[in-house]
Amino acid sequence: MTHPRDILLGAQAQTGYLPVCDHYSGVEARMRKSLQLQADMMDEFGACVFDVTLDCEDGAPVGGEADHAALVVALVALARPKARVAVRVHALDHPAFESDIATIAGRVGHQLSHIMVPKVESVADVQRVVDALGTVSKTELPVHVLLESAAAVHHAFDIAAHPRVQSISFGLMDFVSSHGGAIPADGMSGAGQFTHPLVVRAKLEIASACHAHGKVPSHCVVTEFTDTAAMQTAARKAAHEFGYTRMWSIHPNQIRPILEAFAPSVGEIEDATEIIANAARNDWAPISFGGKLHDRASYRYFWQVLERAHQTGCALPNEAQAYFA
After folding, report:
1. Phi/psi at 200 (nearest 5 deg)?
2. First and final C-alpha spacing in the chain
3. In terms of pTM, does the model score above 0.70?
4. Mean pLDDT for all residues in the chain
5. What are phi and psi of 289, to 5 degrees?
6. Are 221 and 177 in contact, with CB atoms under 8 Å apart?
7. In the structure, what pLDDT confidence band is assigned to residue 13 with cuts at 50, 70 and 90?
């Protein structure tokens, strides 16, 4: 059976499919709970529907960076098979960056889904990360980067073009605070981050850069973690208006709203399944469906609907399930 990925995905299509939710935790008790929740939801959905990123940058106490890195190594080593666990290391200019890389990537790099690096400003910074990883591990770990300043956003297209970059995230709070009061505090809120022109521009630049190079744009946090309605609204806007295919969670209560916001509807899944099945039966030649012409350009879109359904744990018709066996 020819797989749709082999037929439909090319230079202009995202090729790195990741879970739509990236959950961050840095305190030991919360890191352990996050890994257990991931395991429980893997059993529930039959797939790993969110990443767990263990956080060194915000999780390690000042002066305790080495001990925290050792704790992260121990937790990664305990993760169950097929779990997706990543680590956010300290920034390049932090004294603990190199030791984080040596300790974590050097010992458990083969078990990590990726490395997240904060405060990346340029493609030269990306190459420094790649070089540092190369000295301690033979595993070519995907690199995720966090852009947190106007200068970094200006270089988004160059950064997205680097072959080791798999995903770019937007650092909302640092981006706002880097403007010296020119963006009000409301620009960090669940609503204001979608209306202030400078914040909107930065988000769209990152999303556009990622899509130009087949990488995954990952949307920033929503700090109102007890406000489910605000979380759902923000996630829907990120997915349907800003072009993001992934989003950060900073509290377990945010994970399911993110999955729901990024998941296609039942009707979309049914249409996509039928269109892809018909296309495959016709050797990917043009077909008519619902009175409309479809060809490989639209097949690509509908295949990506099925990919997103799988990533979010949606029930798939039998014809679609076969592609994800």
Report:
1. -60, -45
2. 12
3. yes
4. 93
5. -145, 125
6. no
7. low
Sign of the torsion angle spanned by Cα atoms 82, 87, 92, 96? negative
Phi, psi of 58 (to 5 degrees): -95, -10
Which DSSP category does 105 fall into? I
Burial class (CB in 10 A: 0-12, 13-18, 19+), 99: middle
- How much is the pLDDT for 11? 46
Three-state SS for 220? coil
Q: What is the pLDDT of residue 190?
A: 86
Rounded CA gap, 48 and 20, in Å?
10
Q: 243-269, pLDDT tens digit by residue?
A: 999 999 999 999 999 999 999 999 999
Per residue in 3-12, pLDDT tens?
Answer: 888 888 764 4
Q: Is the dihedral of CA 21, 148, 55, 89 positive or negative?
A: positive
Rounded CA-CA distance 291/285 in Å is 16
What was the pLDDT predicted at 153?
98
Q: What is the DSSP code string of 280-293?
A: HHTTT--EEETTEE
C-beta separation of 159 from 198 below 8 A? no
Q: What is the DSSP letter of 265?
A: P
H helical segments located in the chain = 4-8, 28-45, 65-78, 97-100, 106-108, 123-136, 150-154, 156-161, 172-177, 197-212, 228-240, 255-262, 266-281, 296-311, 318-321
